[in-house]
Design brief:
Elements (H helix, E strand, L loop, with lengths): L6 E10 L11 H11 L3 E3 L5 E5 L6 H21 L3 E3 L19 H10 L1 H4 L6 E5 L4 H11 L3 H8 L4 E2 L2 E2 L5 H6 L5 E2 L7 H13 L10 E2 L8
Parallel strand pairs: 8-9
Antiparallel strand pairs: 1-3, 1-4, 1-5, 2-3, 6-7
Helix pairs in contact: 1-2
C-alpha cells in the first residue's frame, strides 16, 4: 500500500505573564473560547502553563503551513485577549518546575505522575510533533529504521533550549536532557518487521513495564492506534 503521507502537526506553547515573563497557569476561559473555534484541536498538557494546538489532517506541507500559521495567530490573539502571552521554546528559561501546577482531572496525566513521580513533575518541556500518514505497518517500520539515522541531524536544526532554572546549561538543547529522564526515549531500536516490534511491545506489557505502546516516547515511533 502506498503511503498517503498526510501531515498533522501538534505544537506545545508556553503560557506566560506579559510583565514578568514567568509561566502562568492557563485559565479556563482560554480553553472554553478556543474549543468553540478549534473543535478539539486545543488541549491542556501535564503542566498547566502548557497549551497544545494541532492542525487538521493536511494533504501536503503547504496546507500544513497555512493551518499552523492561522492556528498560531488565533492562539496568540486569544491569549492576549485574556491578559497572557504565548512563547515557543523547548524549555522556559527561568521558571522552576516545582512552582508549576499539574493539570488535574485527567486520568492519563494522574497515572503518569503516579508512575514516574518526580521525573514526571520535573518534565516541564515543550515540543513539536509531526504525524505522517503511513497506512502500511511494515512500511512504518522500514521508514522508522531509516529515519532514525537522521534524528541527531534534525535535533541540531531544532535546538532552542539552552537555559534551565535561570542558568545557561552549556547545552543548546537542554530539553532533550530533561526528557532523557523518562524511560523509552531518544533514538528507537531497530526492528526487522511489524511482528518484531509487536513482540517488543507485548513483552513490555507482559512485564508490567507499560500498559500500552503510547508509553514509548522515542523521537520517531509508530502510533499504536492510528
Amino acid at each position: 500500500m502506498k503511503p498517503s503521507f498526510t501531515i498533522g502537526i501538534e505544537e506545545e506553547f508556553q503560557v506566560v505573564d506579559p510583565a514578568t515573563r514567568e509561566l502562568r497557569s492557563h485559565i479556563a476561559e482560554i480553553f472554553a473560547q478556543g474549543q468553540e473555534v478549534l473543535k478539539g484541536r486545543m488541549k491542556p498538557e501535564l503542566h498547566q502553563p502548557v497549551v497544545e494546538i494541532g492542525t487538521e489532517i493536511c494533504r501536503d506541507i503547504h496546507e500544513a503551513r497555512r493551518d499552523v500559521t492561522a492556528t498560531r495567530a488565533y492562539l496568540a490573539r486569544l491569549a492576549r485577549e485574556n491578559g497572557l502571552r504565548i512563547a515557543a521554546a523547548g524549555t522556559h528559561p527561568f521558571s522552576h518546575w516545582a512552582s508549576v501546577e499539574i493539570t488535574g482531572g485527567n486520568p492519563r496525566y494522574e497515572r503518569l505522575v503516579e508512575e514516574l513521580q518526580m521525573v514526571a513533575r520535573a518534565n516541564l518541556i515543550f515540543g513539536l510533533h509531526v504525524h505522517i500518514g503511513v497506512e502500511d505497518r511494515e512500511a512504518q517500520i522500514r521508514i522508522m529504521n531509516q529515519v532514525a539515522y537522521f534524528l541527531p541531524h534534525v535535533l541540531t536544526l531544532a535546538v532552542n533550549s539552552p537555559f534551565w532554572l535561570g542558568r545557561d546549561t552549556g547545552w543548546m538543547s537542554y530539553r532533550c536532557k530533561v526528557f532523557d529522564k523518562f524511560p523509552r526515549t531518544n533514538i528507537p531500536d531497530t526492528f526487522t518487521s511489524w511482528a518484531d516490534y509487536e513482540t517488543f511491545v507485548n513483552l513490555l506489557v507482559k512485564t508490567n513495564s507499560i500498559d500500552n505502546a503510547k508509553k514509548i516516547w522515542w523521537d520517531v515511533r509508530p502510533h499504536p492506534f492510528f
